[in-house]
Amino acid sequence: MAGLELLSDQGYRVDGRRARELRKIQARMGVFAQADGSAYIEQGNTKALAVVYGVPRGIGGVRSRALPDRALVNCQYSSATFSTGERKRRPHGDRKSCEMGLQLRQTFEAAILTQLHPRSQIDIYVQVLQADGGTYAACVNAATLAVLDAGIPMRDFVCACSAGFVEGTALADLSHVEEAAGGPQLALALLPASGQIALLEMDARLHEDHLEQVLEAAAQAARDVHTLLDHVVRQHVREASILLGD
Amino acid sequence: MLKSKTFLKKTRAGGVMKIVREHYLRDDIGCGAPGCAACGGAHGGPALEPLPQDPASSLWPRPHYLLPDTNVLLHQIDVLEDPAIRNVIVLQTVLQEVRNRSAPVYKRIRDVTNNQEKHFYTFTNEHHRETYVEQEQGENANDRNDRAIRVAAKWYNEHLKKMSAENQLQVIFITNDRKNKEKAVEEGIPAFTCEEYVKSLTANPELIDRLACLSEEGKEIESGKIIFSEHLPLSKLQQGIKSGIYLQGTFRASRENYLEATVWIHGDTEENKEIILQGLKHLNRAVHEDIVAVELFPKSQWVAPSSVVLQDEGQNEDDVEKEEEREQMLKTAVNEKMLKPTGRVVGIIKRNWRPYCGMLSKSDIKESRRHLFTPADKRIPRIRIETRQASTLEGRRIIVAIDGWPRNSRYPNGHFVKNLGDVGEKETETEVLLLEHDVPHQPFSQAVLSFLPKMPWSITEKDMKNREDLRHLCVCSVDPPGCTDIDDALHCRELKNGNLEVGVHIADVSHFIRPGNALDQESARRGTTVYLCEKRIDMVPELLSSNLCSLRCNVDRLAFSCIWEMNHNAEILKTRFTKSVINSKASLTYAEAQMRIDSATVNDDITISLRGLNKLAKILKKGRIEKGALTLSSPEIRFHMDSETHDPIDLQTKELRETNSMVEEFMLLANISVAKKIHEEFSEHALLRKHPAPPPSNYEILVKAAKSKNLEIKTDTAKSLAQSLDQAESPAFPYLNTLLRILATRCMMQAVYFCSGMDNDFHHYGLASPIYTHFTSPIRRYADIIVHRLLAVAIGADCTYPELTDKHKLADICKNLNFRHKMAQYAQRASVAFHTQLFFKSKGIVSEEAYILFVRKNAIVVLIPKYGLEGTVFFEEKDKPKPHLIYDDEIPSLKIEGIVFHVFDKVKVKIMLDSSNLQHQKIRMALVEPQIPGISIPTDSSNADLNEPEKKKKKLEK
Amino acid sequence: MASVVLSEAEKVYIVHGVQEDLRVDGRSCEDYRSVEVETDVVSNTSGSARVKLGHTDILVGVKAEMGTPKLEKPNEGYLEFFVDCSANATPEFEGRGGDDLGTEIANTLYRIFNNKSSVDLKSLCISPREHCWILYVDVLLLECGGNLFDAISIAVKAALFNTRIPRVRVLEDEEGSKDIELSDDPYDCIRLSVENVPCIVTLCKIGYRHVVDATLQEEACSLASLLVSVTSKGVVTCMRKVGKGSLDPESIFEMMETSKRVGKVLHTSLQSILHKEESLGPKRQKVGFLG
């Protein structure tokens, strides 16, 4: 049996996309009523929820790790036991989840205007319901929407996307099959307005000469994600204002 | 954006895991017909012709495209490859199925698709909004794919109608599946079987011969009686193998006996490693190299391997009874010890059929179209083919492919593929030996050539990046005469500090062959340049091998240099590697270089450089030998060719000069230095070469042979072997040392390439080096290209790519390279053998002095030093009375009618060409001296009465 | 458990309302809030369901995996329950904060399924003593707005209803060794009968009365409650008292009667929703969390 052909001679990927195309993205803000902010995103078959519990918490009490000059950003990543192909034993607390939580925290510390809320804590919880590649990106995108939903001031959107490299071509937004093939993959979180990078991570070896191409693919994909998220936010605000208007 | 695309998902239960994959459907996939208004036609790449004119089919005279299904593609690839077949639509569904089922066919179809002239178009139907079909309830995967193909065909016809109604362009569906065809016709799709269509191509009658003849399953049972038992289905076999009732192994047919074969069981079972199969029914249609499942018989039914030589001479189908008779012959009484595990083939796990070379045995019936084909390889059964051109094919070498082997057929069915030419013709025979050794030798395809640099080529600014200008150095190359692919050059100069700077400059082939492109893939596939006696099969296109990469004199060439700083004792003080530009000052032959070194009057820069090199090389060699490197010997033959006819006019062994070893010494040094560097940098995925130490038992024959001449050979270490070989001299017999070295060579293991991350024994036994690789011949070896790339990355001169740092991929490359090198070696030997035959054909019968190399039970193997030719003298032959032979394994000696033969004994033999078998001509040797009545032949006997004395003798004895 | 802090006045207001059979949100004591059920929301599971009961939001995924039967029940498969109280619901659940509640709920689920009639475990057996299906029922608590147990039991039932297990055949050869073969037709699968799968009806004692489907606020006013698992036929399969207060025997019988009555209605409406959804087949527009 031959292995999977990740990119056909005709330029199509396993799922029918072309190299630089994103998967279908659908998102919604304000999924839960009790949380301060919440959002849900689907990027292809990768589905993630994010909720934000915000500003006033964490002053005093047991959970006080408050910082005097800025807000503390706390993130927890968990992934439902049924989210992956093979059942996971623990939803969170394993090494990968902790690492993801840490990455998310770094990403959002770079984006949230933390100095506006000293001595407070912002909790961001993301939950992956179904994993089909690019979980980090989906989590970042969901969390961005949730933070926006909570009304916490940010420098900019944080838009993330992954990219890979197959046979001399950079592929945007890898699916699980493409990730599992074991090539180099890059995760990028971008602040689209300024073009600044909030997080950049790459696995496997890739020669630096190819990096630019892959980075550009990921950045372009992240900008496309931004267009979509921006649309979702505007739609949400419009709906909310209509409701308020009534 | 993708928003317009419909979103569907496909679930696939593999194992017990539910896997969900997205599947996007698109509406921007072109139909491949240029000028199509509806979809904009093709998007670059290969496309169909807007108005296909030929081939004119009597069934469908209007212009049309072909759309074959998977089985047609798999089995009739020979037809599809024919230039007459053009404008074919290959569906993605079909291509994927082919990919899963046969890698070679997949590669072939990709090559065809890339050929612009063939106008093959791959239609991504699985992702097209209108041609995607979902598996329905109760439908299996195969049926779904068939339906998908029909849906695509139907879509095409409707789509093309839209394009232009008047030219009535249509798609014809080609399938050999009766049900599928019926369904297609019902749905209004013009459908034919491959046979129907090809037969309707009245302009190309020769195509019919290339059709694979596949009898339909149903038909097979009706006619003729069933000879073979049914093959079990794969699932049953796998189950059986798992539970241990069947064994899986590689089928190896016997060369001598067509009714016997062995199966090498896979895995590392200690017992029953080799299973014997006897009789047609037990062989059960397995062909040499197939992967089969066998059932082991109980011990009571075990047999011993027969010593009978049997050739399949049957012409008729019905003489199965006769076969049984012959099978009885095999079962000679033997003692218990000789019995070996015996079994029968119950099923085929994987066929490993390839096209076979051979000759047609024309049917006795004059008008018959069915003929038997006899492959050149005796391990392959005869194949029945259907052809109308039997009379033209007679006496020619042809290629035939096997299509199938029905249960009621004595022979497999096949079809004619190619006519190579007349038997005995040099071109034909060369082609045959290339094909039989699986040497890729077709001209380079357009796709490959497209990656060559454009001429006129010159070194640009960009090329100079990361490159040193070494044009000022006095570099020269030393090679055999007539060498056009010069891949190494050298220099040596004295530095200001009194040390010497020595540089080895190797052609920078990896600069031209970029990883992953068609040129690279083709070179990787070829693996090595194959040198035949009168021909060279290049690994890279000639523009590179003989021009741009060849380090010719007085032109600027790109090189990869390895530069050492040495003191006058040849100790390396500093090593550095750099990509460079050089300008060789002279291309010398070994003889020319030797002359310069020797003539005291010449004192130019080149000569001084050469002398320096030579001096250092001698020190290096001495050091190497002290460490235990072996100097082995093998008789290498060189033909003197007639400059016009290219026929060999003389045979001689190659001569070695000091300069040969000078160049060799520096190449070894460069290889070792590079091996160290790349292993240091890439401990997991360096491509290295190792030479394992042979197991002690290998040396037995050498030790025994030496002992018989009262010499002692120590084999405990390489060093002691080298020393004892040096000391093994006999003043009365000067050639003895060479003979011992030849024998020692035979004891060695094969040196192989390997990936450093997959092995931990790196030692090179022959060179006594702890690490070794190949760096110095990138024009003719692919391994060197990989090594160049690794080294370039290590010094930061070039960039890496994912495959380079994947040790499994590297291990695969090594596997292919080792195979190609072995095959190249075999092909080379076969070529030498063929030319030897030509030589002796013209020379007639000669008698020469020879030395005995080996003693066998019924023969002696002799070496004729004059020609470097080795041959076997048989003492037992068919139809002749057996002489009295006593074989002693301990001394190795053979006593024939009172005369004893020892290893290294001097004999005189007569050499002649045996053309009794047209397909397998060979050199035969007969003993002349010492004379043994009834065995040896008189010195003065001429060709005519060659066999006379024996005949007379035979009569007398009776 | 997630809880709210109420003032004394608020509590009195709620208790008095219940007394009058008029609850804060306008329901009577035996009314459920409106329940939203959707199945097949996570495509890579064997079965899944999402249930929204007021602000309580539950997602259940069922994964069928092959394993070996338990020694004591060689010809049955079995169910494994896991409840993940995610931090999504409340920050208190962060880290290991939700583990205790999760274990408690999972144990309750084990108990209500621990009888032969609820699920036909024999149909999960592939070959006795060797292979069986293990159904991993994973509950994900996304938001809690009271009455967790009922919502979870509804979601579990819906997810089991939705579960499709690939059909496998056991091939046995002469030597007795077995091999598992999977059908390559994705439609060829086993469904579980959920006819007898019970649902939990929780009755909260508030003042002198009891209410079903209490909100978080109501739970805060209750001292004790009774979990009753009821099948669609009104059979009580399991019962458990929770909470720090005490109950008198008389009210327990009264509560059981209520739970049977309410439970039957609950089952009927759940069945009808599930069948309606099923009849739409693949054409059904999936909403999930996007609606």
From TrEMBL, chain A:
Where are the annotated coiled coils located? none
The record lists the organism as Ictidomys tridecemlineatus
Protein's name in the database: Exosome complex component RRP41
Give me the Gene Ontology terms describing cellular component: cytoplasmic exosome (RNase complex); cytosol; euchromatin; nuclear exosome (RNase complex); nucleolus; nucleoplasm
Q: Does the keyword Phosphoprotein apply?
A: no
Cell compartment(s), UniProt: Cytoplasm; Nucleus, Nucleolus; Nucleus, Nucleoplasm
- The reply on keyword Disulfide bond is no
* Domain (Exoribonuclease phosphorolytic) ranges: 21-153, 156-220
- Assembly mode: Component of the RNA exosome core complex (Exo-9), composed of EXOSC1, EXOSC2, EXOSC3, EXOSC4, EXOSC5, EXOSC6, EXOSC7, EXOSC8 and EXOSC9; within the complex interacts with EXOSC2, EXOSC7 and EXOSC9. The catalytically inactive RNA exosome core complex (Exo-9) associates with the catalytic subunit EXOSC10/RRP6. Exo-9 may associate with DIS3 to form the nucleolar exosome complex, or DIS3L to form the cytoplasmic exosome complex.
Transmembrane segments in this chain: where?
none
Keyword list, A-Z = Acetylation, Cytoplasm, Exosome, Nucleus, RNA-binding, rRNA processing
The record's comment on protein family reads: Belongs to the RNase PH family.
Per the record, the major location class is cytoplasm
Q: Which GO terms describe its molecular function?
A: mRNA 3'-UTR AU-rich region binding
Q: Which InterPro entries match?
A: ExoRNase_PH_dom1 (IPR001247), ExoRNase_PH_dom2 (IPR015847), ExoRNase_PH_dom2_sf (IPR036345), PNPase/RNase_PH_dom_sf (IPR027408), Ribosomal_Su5_D2-typ_SF (IPR020568), RNase_PH (IPR050080)
CDD domains reported in the protein's UniProt record: RNase_PH_RRP41
Pfam families per record: RNase_PH (PF01138), RNase_PH_C (PF03725)
UniProtKB/TrEMBL annotation, chain B:
The family database entries (Gene3D superfamilies) matched by this protein are listed as: 2.40.50.690, 2.40.50.700, 5'-nuclease, Nucleic acid-binding proteins
**Transmembrane segment boundaries:** none
Q: From the Swiss-Prot or TrEMBL record, state where the protein is found.
A: Cytoplasm; Nucleus, Nucleolus; Nucleus, Nucleoplasm
Recorded GO molecular functions are:
3'-5'-RNA exonuclease activity; endonuclease activity; guanyl-nucleotide exchange factor activity; RNA binding
Main location (coarse class): cytoplasm
Q: Which residues form the RNB domain?
A: 467-797
Composition-biased stretches, type Basic and acidic residues, lie in 948-958
The protein's matches in SUPFAM superfamilies, at most eight in alphabetical order, are given as: Nucleic acid-binding proteins (SSF50249), PIN domain-like (SSF88723)
Instruction: Report the InterPro entries cross-referenced here.
Output: Dis3_CSD2, NA-bd_OB-fold, PIN-like_dom_sf, PIN_dom, RNase_II/R, RNase_II/R_CS, RNR_Ribonuclease, Rrp44_CSD1
Entry annotated with the keyword tRNA processing:
no
Q: Which CDD domains has this protein been placed in? A: PIN_Rrp44-like
Domain named PIN is located at 64-182
Cofactors per UniProt? Mg(2+); Mn(2+)
Q: Where is this region: Disordered?
A: 936-958
Report keywords, A-Z: Acetylation, Cytoplasm, Endonuclease, Exonuclease, Exosome, Hydrolase, Magnesium, Manganese, Nuclease, Nucleus, Phosphoprotein, RNA-binding, rRNA processing
Please give an example of a GO cellular component term from this record. Answer: cytoplasmic exosome (RNase complex)
The Gene Ontology biological process annotation of the record reads: CUT catabolic process; nuclear mRNA surveillance of mRNA 3'-end processing; rRNA catabolic process; rRNA processing
Q: Which family does it belong to?
A: Belongs to the RNR ribonuclease family.
Assembly and binders: Component of the RNA exosome complex; within the complex interacts with EXOSC4, EXOSC7 and EXOSC9 of the exosome core complex (Exo-9). The catalytically inactive RNA exosome core complex (Exo-9) associates with the catalytic subunit EXOSC10/RRP6. Exo-9 may associate with DIS3 to form the nucleolar exosome complex, or DIS3L to form the cytoplasmic exosome complex. Exo-9 is formed by a hexameric base ring consisting of the heterodimers EXOSC4-EXOSC9, EXOSC5-EXOSC8 and EXOSC6-EXOSC7, and a cap ring consisting of EXOSC1, EXOSC2 and EXOSC3; DIS3 associates with the base ring of Exo-9.
Report what the protein is called: Exosome complex exonuclease RRP44
Q: Species name for this entry?
A: Urocitellus parryii
TrEMBL record, chain C:
Main subcellular localization, coarse class?
A: cytoplasm
The keyword Acetylation is annotated on this UniProt entry: yes
Q: Where is the Exoribonuclease phosphorolytic domain?
A: 32-166, 196-261
Instruction: Provide the alphabetized UniProt keywords.
Output: Acetylation, Cytoplasm, Exosome, Nucleus, RNA-binding, rRNA processing
Mention one GO biological process in which this protein takes part, according to its record: TRAMP-dependent tRNA surveillance pathway
Kindly list the GO CC terms recorded for this protein: cytoplasmic exosome (RNase complex); cytosol; nuclear exosome (RNase complex); nucleolus
Q: How does it assemble?
A: Component of the RNA exosome core complex (Exo-9), composed of EXOSC1, EXOSC2, EXOSC3, EXOSC4, EXOSC5, EXOSC6, EXOSC7, EXOSC8 and EXOSC9; within the complex interacts with EXOSC2 and EXOSC4. The catalytically inactive RNA exosome core complex (Exo-9) associates with the catalytic subunit EXOSC10/RRP6. Exo-9 may associate with DIS3 to form the nucleolar exosome complex, or DIS3L to form the cytoplasmic exosome complex. Exo-9 is formed by a hexameric base ring consisting of the heterodimers EXOSC4-EXOSC9, EXOSC5-EXOSC8 and EXOSC6-EXOSC7, and a cap ring consisting of EXOSC1, EXOSC2 and EXOSC3.
Q: What is this protein called?
A: Exosome component 7
Q: Which organism is it from?
A: Urocitellus parryii (Arctic ground squirrel)
